[in-house]
Amino acid sequence: MRAILLTTLLLLASAASPAGAADAWRQTGETVYKGHRLTTLIDDAGHRGKLKLDDREIALPSPVSEVGKITLADAQSTILFAIAIRLVAGNCGSFVLVSVPATETGKGDTLFDFGPCNGRLNLTLRRVRTWAAWYAIGFRDDLAAAKVAMMRNAAMSVHDVTAPPCLFADKVPTGCVEPLIAAAYGSQERGLLTGEASFGERRIETFFNRASGKATILLDGKTVRTFDGAADFNIDQVNAGESGMFALWLKPAAQGCSVRPLVFLPDRTSEPQVIADFAPCTDRLLGAATSNKPSEWTGIAFRLGDTRGFVASVADHKLTTRTAELPACLVTRDGAKSPDCLRQLVPGGAPPSGTAPKPRIAPTPAKPRTIPL
After folding, report:
1. pLDDT of residue 294 exceeding 60
2. 313 contact partners, CB below 8 Å, separation of at least 6
3. Minimal CA–CA distance to 50: which of 35, 38, 34?
4. Which of 43, 281, 316, 365 is the most exposed place for a label (fewest CB within 10 A)?
5. Is residue 4 predicted with pLDDT exceeding 50?
6. Closest CA to 248 of 318, 239, 297, 256
7. For residues 149 and 139, is the Cβ–Cβ distance under 8 A?
8. Are the CB atoms for 243 and 295 separated by under 8 Å?
9. Taking the CB of residue 70, how many other CB atoms lie within 10 A of it?
10. How does pLDDT run across 161-170, given as a tens digit for each residue?
């Protein structure tokens, strides 16, 4: 009798074992990107959902009836995974946002309740050269309100905004999304953040308001310079050694040549020097270390095919600018990529072999997408 009872207990324990529980989970999707693996799973009977991100599990709010598609945005420093879910209560759609640092160090962030019962998501990626940022807008058809999620101070933040009629269009125009993002960032007047860079603890940011045509430079949160009549504005190149050298790019709205404003910080405590009209009518900017000294740098701006260009040099914590006759090799498309060609205008050395800066390509704003649940 005892043997029969023991056998029965063992069978019951086996049925309730972790292995049996594991069988309840059904994989609904998987994405592998830049060394990170995200898997979505659901327990249909138990109405539970979970994510597996690399070596850790993330439980989703319960009860869940559906764990849907994974959408990602690569913003250089962080990677965003957006997962559509549907809750049992009210058959209500929502999204879970998971940010992962692009580097091996750093902590990720998870936002479970992004726009509860928001069945639509607009995911916008703004990319300019090596800088990029993602913005997620959650909204629903029956409310004139939306939520904007973004990365601020290495963590996800969420802000409530008013949803304009253009947000509900099948193809959402860029001019509709940018004011919402600017409002969430707290920069309605300045407009959209278009670039950010650091020099020690000092921080430079560029903003562009498409509606007013204003372009603004901020340093440590304070306005350094504002330009009127702009069509686009961003940070082009950064050299932050013992001095901070920031080359910007400003495109006018009216017919005319673009310019490359320079913001120079001789050291980490000094006031900025601004040259507003450096290198007009140029479409290339090549930057190179002048030597092994971190305090020296040279930038060369020119228009492909022209024989004269503009040179900005940093040495001994001082900035100088001049025009210069360009070597013949530099005015050709292939020559502009050659370290040997650059050496002729960079005194004291040349860029390391194989690391010649690529010619600048004017950024094309990413088209916003609306993702139905």
Report:
1. no
2. 290, 296, 297, 298, 299, 319, 320, 321, 322
3. 38
4. 316
5. no
6. 239
7. no
8. yes
9. 20
10. 999 999 999 8
How many CB atoms neighbour CB 337 within 10 A? Answer: 15
Query: Can you say whether the dihedral through the CA atoms of 302, 307, 312, 316 is positive or negative?
Result: positive
Query: What element of type H or E holds 102?
Result: none
Most confident of 65-74, 96-105, 282-291: 65-74
Cβ(151)–Cβ(134) under 8 Å? yes
The structure's pTM equals 0.78
Sheet holding 78-87, edge to edge: 64-74, 78-87, 92-101, 109-114
- CA angle, 21 then 25 then 27, to 5°: 155
Tokens of 91: 């058959």
Total residue length of the chain: 373
For residue 170, count CB atoms less than 10 angstroms from its CB and return exposed for 0-12, middle for 13-18, buried for 19 or more.
exposed
Q: Let me know: does 311 contact 300? Beta carbons within 8 Å.
A: yes
Q: In angstroms, rounded to a whole number, what is the distance separating the alpha carbons of residues 314 and 327?
A: 21
Residue 216 CA to residue 364 CA, distance in Å, equals 20
| 187, containing H or E segment | none
Per-residue pLDDT, 288: 67
Peptide bond connecting 63 to the previous residue in cis, omega within 30 degrees of 0: yes
Characterize the bridge pairing of strands 284-289 and 273-275: unpaired
The predicted-structure confidence for 79-127, as pLDDT tens digits, reads as follows: 999 999 988 877 788 899 999 987 765 567 899 878 777 778 898 888 8
Give the separation between CA 256 and CA 275, rounded to whole angstroms.
Answer: 18
CA-CA-CA-CA torsion sign (272, 274, 279, 283): positive
With a pLDDT cut of 90, the percent of the chain lying above it is 49
Task: Give the three-state DSSP class for 280.
Answer: coil
Name the nearest CA neighbour of 73 among 177, 150, 185, 187: 150
More confident residue, 243 or 343: 243
